[in-house]
Specification:
CATH superfamily of the largest domain in chain B: FAD/NAD(P)-binding domain
Number of helices of chain A: 20
Chains: A alpha/beta, B alpha/beta, C alpha+beta
Strand content of chain B: 15-25%
Strand order of the largest sheet of chain A: 8-7-6-16-27
Distance between the termini of chain B: 52 Å
CATH class of the largest domain in chain B: Alpha Beta
Oligomer: heterotrimer
Largest sheet of chain A: 5 strands, parallel
Radius of gyration of chain B: 23 Å
Structural class of chain B: alpha/beta
CATH superfamily of the largest domain in chain A: FAD/NAD(P)-binding domain
CATH class of the largest domain in chain A: Alpha Beta
Largest sheet of chain B: 7 strands, mixed
CATH topology of the largest domain in chain B: FAD/NAD(P)-binding domain
Shape of chain B: globular
């Protein structure tokens, strides 16, 4: 393989004198024109002329120059305008290096001219060293699927399915129940319009039913997921429904002959027959049989079915489905209210949950088979306890944000049905946010709705009449209230559904402390921390219906990039040098996104579709054999080697500042832009994540005489790559311990948190560090 | 971490691997052989069988501070042979092997440089010579560099697999067998050609610092090289040469680290307690400071015997900068020496470095001990090639020379295997070897027998006292050698009582067995050469002078029927003209 | 020559099947103990090549001189850079000596 001899063209954009006012550019040009591998070095006052660009293109085409080093202040737009035309002339866009001297404080008047000159020289030296090692890079295109798997056919999943199928994507909806609809299908009404949710659901289902891009898999669960983003393979297992999905047309003849009644989904729900329409919504329409409840030898439904759709020999089946991305919309379950012992849920039939209240309200006009035989019109005194088991350290510590609005909606609808009923709301705070305030106002205006700002200490059952006795101290009226209620509704909170927890385990997804899917809430609420797997709706956190729909759409949008038939991989991905790798697998263990897999020989290798290119693997590798393309260990090492550790003169320490590009580096840049008195002692190198800093790099810097190494990254819980900051802190701690044994001050390696606008903090950090380093004296390795 | 020990031989899995070329021992020569073989024919399957991990296995584990032979501009391969010849007192040596090695030598070293090994260069970019033939390097990464290159070229490496015996088809070598010291499997490698490059044999003799606390392996030579490569050939009747030309050297006292660095690199004279320059004073007639190595090795010992010890390498003339450079050299090869000086609080510009003789080793890279090989490096067993320290007849190879050996052996082996097809696997041979290999482990830790450590210590003291070890100032005589042989035989007989408590112990057991076989051959060679040709390396108190009758090679071969070692001679042939005793 | 493992620092290489020191030792002397920490199974057999000391990712291993050979309290600490190595030597009197050199150059 022929070795490439680099030919660097250095362009110094003086921008009408900005740089030359601060430093002697001619001296620099003289020095660097002679440097190794430099083809030319020139100062340009006016950059944006056709003539100049033509000359650049010429040099590139004639191979006089094979890469450029741009010195000056260039915005990202300007960089694009330069790279574009030169790419057309055959120069790979990765063969450009940018060095902004101003960024490093060269133009700050407070700094002495000799220091500015020495610093500029060292910075350019560093940039040339890195430029020598640039390589042309091309993005990769991996083939990918155009299908998405949506787990959970509730409102969030169904709406996402509709939107995605309308875009031409194939959608596989996997649902564990026999029918779709989730919790919303159980509601009697939803707010703010107090309308029937089945209306909206039917609307969506009709579209889904007509689409030939959508496949429903009910009574199904995902058992395993293999592969990588763009190319997953899901294993879906289906429990038998014992009815053919193609033949059954839901005529219902079987219902009449089925001898067995079984309980419905909830205690207040209607009973079902063993053969029943899909629940919660009869879609897809084929009936299902709860076979374990069938009387032995009974085959009445099979006999009567006109379509011959009953198949009592159906077996569980398994299917492998190739997909590009996964969207999890597994929803929520109600907090088990029997745990809230003081309210007696589960002990008495007229203490129900808010979800069961929805069932009760849906039963209006029908004869109930409910054991309590409650009839809506009999309920004249109804109490609602808010925050039942929520905002409570013993149960759910958080607020589920919808229960107040839900309760008020229930009251508004209930009062439509039973206008003379009295309602009592026992609350801590009414949290009807946004326009939901309207529900609160309307409820109060109804009359016979009393709000008590205290929750009952306990609930007693009057066995004689079957009513509930409640005593509560109203703090606003400052007197005890005694009530005798027909029904008590506990507004329970939302917690992760069983399906969510199962899915988290099977797909190995991290969960937060409340066991909801762990995502980067503000900026990337759709993420599950595993590339290609998204979460939406209330499996992510408690939210109302319209928020669920919004949320799953956000996730669907993000998932689209894996459904385009190809996945584009930017070329700046990590590469493991397998001749040097000793398979210690620390990269695999520490990768925040679990992106490493084993190759055929057992070496860890990144799954390029999963990889986020954060560089933490590069940082953790004990042998420093992993490098990110265009950001290699070697490229960093030669920059450090080029640093003149004495550029500040005899008594001033030199600090190498490795700043993460997301936050810390921006803070440093802001400090310069704001004209703050940034001390010149720091040489700044931008890194992708603080976690990408390898101990070997720090060792290089220290052993070359640099007095102090500053590593700055985001705060622990804010790191864009989840734990990069934590990882580098632990490692640099180990290195500091080693420094102690080497009789070097451990404080010569320092880690700080810097947020994006911490410009002032950056200056303070530097000043403190400089003072400390002066106290320590120069690095013993300084020549 | 050892796995659960099986109680039944049938529970031990056997893995059979077929390959074109098998390299036993992934050290310097082994890695170079693999790289060269792949360079010659990239489609060949090349397997390295290594009992440790190739990244740091063998003698170059800590690194190297110099390449002792690199032909400078103006000198020729013949010049190198002449110098090598004079260093062993005029030979005998295999000048054909020496010449072919010298012709390949610089290429091998240049390879290392091109792979990233830092060679210390002068202002013109030329290697800096610290002696007539020695160049300095910063070789702390020498071994990893070679290992990575072997991996890059596509060699398949089986780390942590101990070689225990060759696989034979009659008298032809068709592979090797061994066991995994981590996975406890039995391995059978079927190969069209085998290169043995396991280094020399250390630990045949008791080290004088060997005691209960932590300094048992304070040897100059890598103590993990026990001569298994020799033993597996010996057992199948391969011819060995020049084992009596032991490598005994002047080394730092107690620490037993290299001294050439000091004496050659920093021109430190060897002095006795009186401050006299020994070599100048007593060995001027043999060249003084340029006297052959065995003279330099034995000189300090003579001073001790005469009551003029301790002896030192006089570093008191060094400037602080030179002292620091010297320590940097040590950090590249034997870093613990710097720690040794630090733990004595010793400033070498004020207190010279104490030196003494080392324990004797069989090291084909420094002396001519090893397999008798042809120019294509094939041993007397067809199919088996010797490389590096395993190949005998050519002293003064050192690191560069052993690298060159690897290349030469690879060339020989690749040419040979082109016309070879593998015979059927001899299952009986495999079963027999598997039983032999695992026998100590299957006896179990509670077995009332002999531990590998006991056997090793017994042999080491036997050799030390009777076969010319350090405590005897390297001297021996016929009766002592016969005594040694008698007891070595008894030890070999008691090998059937060895027990091992885990896989690591099993490796120690086989190391003890292999050392016994090597020690036996060595003792026969010492007995046969009834003269003293290289004092120190081979000192016969009963024949203190050189006898021209023995101006030849001493050879040995184990008789496959009787199991007896038969010794004989081969004539010396001078190829490079000139005075044999002058460089 | 016992390599000493600092049990606080050693993480047993996350209790992998083979710790890094175990993987590299030319004498098969390092291994993982019952407490999931590395240790040298046979200190008297160590040749002090210091491969374990260099490779430990958390710097938990220190090489010591056997007391037979040298007094207590001296230290030799290697620090691996990307293409260089830094050694710090502290003798029994507390004198510090530092060495730094390149151990790899650009391959051609």
């Amino acid at each position: 393989m022929d070795k490439i001899i680099p030919k660097i063209g250095i362009i110094i954009w003086n921008q009408g004198g900005r740089l030359s006012q601060a430093i002697n550019l001619d001296a620099l040009v003289k020095k660097f024109t002679k440097a190794k591998n430099v083809a030319c070095c020139e100062i340009v006052e006016e950059l944006w002329t056709t003539a100049f660009f033509d000359s650049l293109k010429n040099s590139a085409e004639n191979k006089q120059v094979d890469r450029f080093l741009w010195i000056g202040r260039f915005t990202p737009y300007q960089m694009k305008y330069i790279k574009g035309p030169l790419a057309a002339a055959g120069l790979n866009p990765y063969l450009h290096e940018w060095m902004d001297l101003e960024d490093q404080g060269i133009c700050l008047k407070e700094t002495e001219p000799e220091i500015r000159a020495a610093k500029a020289a060292t910075l350019i030296q560093m940039a040339i060293a890195r430029t020598r090692l640039l390589e042309p890079l091309e993005p990769m295109e991996l083939p990918a699927s155009d299908a998405i798997l949506i787990i959970g056919a509730g409102i969030a999943g169904l709406h996402a399915a509709e939107s995605l199928s309308a875009l031409g994507k194939r959608v596989y909806l996997v649902e564990k129940e026999s029918g779709v609809g989730g919790k919303v299908a159980l509601l009697s009404r939803f707010y703010p319009r107090i309308c029937d949710p089945h209306c909206g659901l039917e609307f969506t289902l009709q579209k889904l039913g007509e689409s030939d891009h959508v496949e429903f898999h009910t009574l199904s669960k995902v058992q395993a997921l293999s592969g990588s983003p763009g190319n997953f393979m899901a294993t879906v297992i289906k429990t038998p429904r014992f009815v053919s999905e193609t033949k059954c047309n839901a005529c219902g003849e079987c219902l009449a002959v089925c001898p067995k009644e079984i309980p419905g989904l909830y205690p207040v729900s209607d009973n079902l027959k063993a053969i029943h329409p899909p629940i919660p919504m009869p879609f897809p329409p084929a009936f299902a049989i709860e076979r374990e409840h069938c009387p032995p030898e009974c085959r009445e439904c099979e006999k009567i079915c006109p379509a011959k759709a009953v198949d009592l020999n159906q077996m569980p089946s398994e299917e492998q489905i190739p997909i590009g991305a996964v969207l999890i919309t597994t929803g929520w379950d109600l907090y088990p209210l029997s745990a809230v012992e003081e309210y007696g849920y589960g002990r008495f039939d007229n203490i129900i949950s808010n979800l069961e209240m929805e069932q009760l309200l849906s039963s209006h006009g029908r004869r109930l088979t409910h054991p309590a035989k409650l009839s809506l019109s009999d309920l004249k005194e109804v109490g609602f306890i808010q925050c039942a088991g929520s905002r409570d350290e013993r149960h759910l510590p958080y607020c589920s944000s919808v229960c107040c609005s839900a309760t008020l909606k229930q009251i508004l609808y209930f009062k439509e049905l039973v206008p003379d009923a009295s309602c009592y709301v026992f609350y801590q705070h009414i949290r009807t946010s946004g326009f939901d305030e309207d529900l609160y106002r309307k409820a109060r205006e109804l009359g016979n709705v009393t709000f008590v700002r205290e929750r009952p200490a306990k609930v007693e059952h009057d066995n004689h009449q079957g009513k509930l006795n409640i005593t509560v101290l109203d703090p606003l009226l400052d007197k005890k209230i005694h009530l005798n209620l027909d029904l008590l509704v506990l507004a329970g909170g939302m917690c992760p559904s069983g399906g969510s927890k199962e899915t988290a385990q099977i797909l190995n997804l991290p969960q937060n402390q409340y066991q909801f899917f762990e995502s980067h809430l503000q900026c990337h609420p759709e993420e599950s921390q595993r590339t290609g797997i998204y979460v939406g709706g209330s499996c992510r956190e408690p939210m109302n219906v319209s928020q669920s729909i919004d949320s799953s759409h956000r996730s669907a949008m993000q998932a689209l990039k894996y459904l385009e038939g190809t996945v584009r991989i930017e070329p700046t991905y990590p590469v493991v040098n397998k001749t040097k790798c000793d398979q210690c697998k620390r990269c695999m263990e520490e990768c925040p996104f679990s992106s490493f897999v084993f190759d055929e020989k057992g070496f860890p290798t990144p799954d390029l579709a999963r990889c986020r290119q954060c560089g933490n693997c590069m940082g953790i590798c004990p042998l420093a054999v992993i490098s990110l393309n265009n950001n290699t260990i070697k490229q960093l090492a030669v920059q450090i080697e080029a640093v003149n550790a004495s550029f500040m003169g005899k008594n001033e320490p030199v600090i190498l500042a490795l700043l993460c590009e997301n936050d810390a580096h921006k803070a440093a840049r802001a400090a310069v832009d704001q004209g703050l008195p940034v001390p010149p002692n720091a040489i700044v190198i931008k890194v992708s994540c603080a976690g990408s800093v390898n101990n070997a790099i720090v060792a290089d810097a220290l052993s070359l005489g640099i007095d102090g190494i500053l590593i700055a990254g985001c705060k622990d819980d804010q790191c864009h790559y989840i734990k990069g900051s934590q990882l580098v802190q632990k490692r640099s701690g180990d290195l500091s311990d080693k420094l102690k044994t080497m009789m070097i001050e451990p404080e010569r390696v320092r880690f700080v948190n810097l947020e994006i606008r911490d410009a002032h903090k950056y200056v303070d950090v530097l000043n403190t560090y400089i003072k400390d380093l002066k106290g320590m004296g120069p690095n013993p390795f300084k020549i | 971490m050892s796995k659960e020990q099986p109680l039944d031989i049938h529970a031990i899995p056997t893995e059979v691997i077929e390959t074109d070329l098998l390299i036993v021992g992934g050290g310097n020569a082994g890695c170079f052989a693999a790289i060269e073989a792949k360079k010659l024919k990239s489609e060949l399957k090349v397997v390295i069988m290594e009992k440790a991990h190739i990244s740091r296995s063998g003698a170059t584990a800590a690194g190297m501070d110099a390449i002792n032979t690199y032909i400078p501009p103006g000198k020729t391969p013949e010049d190198l042979v002449r110098w090598s010849r004079s260093q062993v007192g005029g030979g005998p040596l295999r000048e054909d092997l020496a010449l072919s090695n010298a012709q390949t030598l610089n290429g091998a070293v240049d390879d290392l440089a091109s792979w990233g090994l830092p060679i210390i260069r002068d202002e013109n970019g030329e290697p800096q010579y610290r002696g007539g033939w020695d160049i300095s390097i910063h070789g702390e990464q020498l071994k990893p560099i070679m290992a990575e290159k072997a991996m890059e070229m596509g060699a398949e490496v089986y780390n942590r697999v101990v070689a225990t015996n060759l696989l034979m088809d009659g008298d032809t070598c068709v592979g090797a067998m061994g066991f995994g010291v981590r996975d406890g499997k039995f391995y059978v490698f079927r190969a069209k050609a085998v290169i043995v490059s396991t280094g020399g044999a250390c630990g045949l003799y008791k080290s004088y610092t060997s005691d209960a606390t932590n300094s048992h392996h304070q040897t100059w030579m890598c103590p993990f090289n026990v001569g298994s490569g020799y033993a597996i050939g010996i057992r199948k009747g391969a011819e060995m040469t020049s084992f009596e030309q032991r490598w005994v050297a002047t080394r730092t006292k107690d620490h037993c680290g290299p001294v050439d660095t000091i004496s050659v690199g920093y021109k430190s004279n060897i002095i006795n307690a009186k401050g006299e320059r020994i070599l100048e004073k007593h060995y001027a007639h043999l060249g003084g400071d340029k006297a052959p190595r065995y003279i330099r090795a034995n000189a300090p010992m003579e001073e001790w015997l005469e009551g003029r010890g301790p002896t030192f390498a006089d570093t008191t003339h060094l400037s602080p900068e030179e002292a620091k450079e010297l320590k940097t050299d040590y950090l590249n090869e034997r870093p613990s020496f710097v720690l040794f000086l630090a733990s004595r609080g010793q400033d070498i510009t004020k207190d010279p470095i104490e030196i003494y003789g080392s324990d004797p080793y069989v090291v084909g890279g420094h002396t001519g001990s090893g397999y008798w090989v042809e120019v294509n490096r094939m041993t007397t067993l067809p199919g088996l090639f010797g490389a590096g320290e395993s190949a005998g007849g050519n002293p003064n190879k050192f690191v560069g020379g052993c690298a060159a050996e690897g290349k030469l052996a690879a060339r020989g082996a690749v040419e040979y295997l082109g016309s070879v097809s593998l015979p059927d696997l001899d299952l009986q041979q495999v079963e027999q070897e598997k039983e032999r290999v695992f026998a100590p482990l299957l006896r179990g830790a509670e077995f009332d027998g002999v531990s590998p450590l006991e056997m090793e210590e017994r042999m080491q003291r036997l050799m030390d006292e009777y076969a010319g070890g350090t405590s005897q100032f390297y001297r021996t005589n016929e009766e002592r050698l016969d005594y040694a042989l008698k007891h070595l035989k008894m030890l070999q007989d008691q090998v059937k009582l060895l027990y091992a408590k885990d896989l690591h112990d099993l490796m120690s057991a086989h190391e003890a067995i292999d050392r016994l076989d090597v020690a036996e051959v060595l003792t026969h060679h010492l007995k046969f050469r009834r003269e003293t040709r290289w004092k120190g390396w081979q000192t016969r108190s009963d024949y203190p002078d050189m006898d021209p009758k023995f101006d030849c090679f001493v050879e040995s071969k184990r008789n496959k029927e009787t199991g007896e070692i038969e010794t004989f001679t081969r004539p010396y042939e001078q190829i490079v003209p000139g005075d044999r005793y002058q460089p | 020559m016992p390599p000493r493992v600092d049990k606080e620092k050693c993480d047993g290489c996350k209790a992998e099947e083979e710790t890094l020191c175990e993987q590299v030792c030319p004498g098969d002397l390092m291994t993982l103990g019952e407490n999931k920490k590395a240790y040298c199974r046979q200190p008297r057999d160590c040749w002090d090549c210091m491969s374990c000391t260099k490779i430990c990712p958390v710097g938990a291993i220190e090489t010591r001189m056997p007391y037979q050979l040298g007094y207590h309290g001296a230290k030799l600490i290697p620090m691996m850079g990307t293409d260089n190595i830094t050694w710090t030597c502290v003798d029994i009197h507390g004198n510090v000596e530092r060495f730094r050199y390149k151990n790899r150059v650009e391959p051609e």
